[in-house]
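Hi P.,

Sorry for the delay on this. The queue was packed all week, but I finally got your sequence through. Input first:
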Amino acid sequence: MQYAQLRAFHAVALNGGFSRAAEALNLTQPAISDQVRRLEQEFAVSLFDRKPRSVELTAIGRKLLSATRRFFDAEQEARDILTAARSLSAGSLTLYTDAPFLAMRLIAEFRKLHPGIEIKVLTGNAERCLESVLDYHADVAITSETRQDARLASWPLHREPLAAVLMPDHPLAAAGSIRLAELTREPLIFREARSVTRRLFEDDLARRNITCVPALEVEGREALVEAVAAGLGIGVMAASELGGDQRLVSVPIADTKSIMTEALVRLAERPPSAIIDAVFAVAERMSPAGG
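Then the structure:
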């Protein structure tokens, strides 16, 4: 049984004859007749009672028509789904991010152009964001993890140096900038060991031959902000990560060499996706120079 045979049968049954079925499918009448005949011969059944000017379905033909209606309805539904996704009028996108402030900016611009796309946003550290793309749990990620990997394609969204984050009433809050040596004389709050922020800060300290034991180690950006807000010490992060939190202030680190880079990441060899392509197009318009 072949698709063409079922399609020919379905057209004849719906149109009430071979000639009209041929017109509907833009084929010749002999081609339609041959497909139906082959289907009947393969299963040793008669699907139509053929009369001089018309055809009528047999009992088995009526049962088969019920099945082909469901079959071709499902085919059309699948076609409609795929067509809508290609036209960006429907579909879904899962985005994993370690920078919600950037993710929301990107999504806001994307939704202006494609409001029909359902978007799911998940948050985690930089490493988890990258893993989520590699293991197909996310379509794209915004992450500061910039390791080279031939399986990935990326577009830089934002670059920013690290800054000290502290309470507004701290003596150093009024300084125009702070040097690394000054910071290490204060109780410092570090991110978890696998954090990109911590790795960049420790690279800065190593370049200056400065050793430092953190007063407190926390996991995640939110925990770092809350620890500083509770007066437990000074944190280090990109200033933009504070968002609109009025409880804290950021002060530039004068001798930092580290730059936090956030990039939009996708699998390089993933099957073509109009939705993912559209997200990258928005990212490139937001950050045309790559940062």
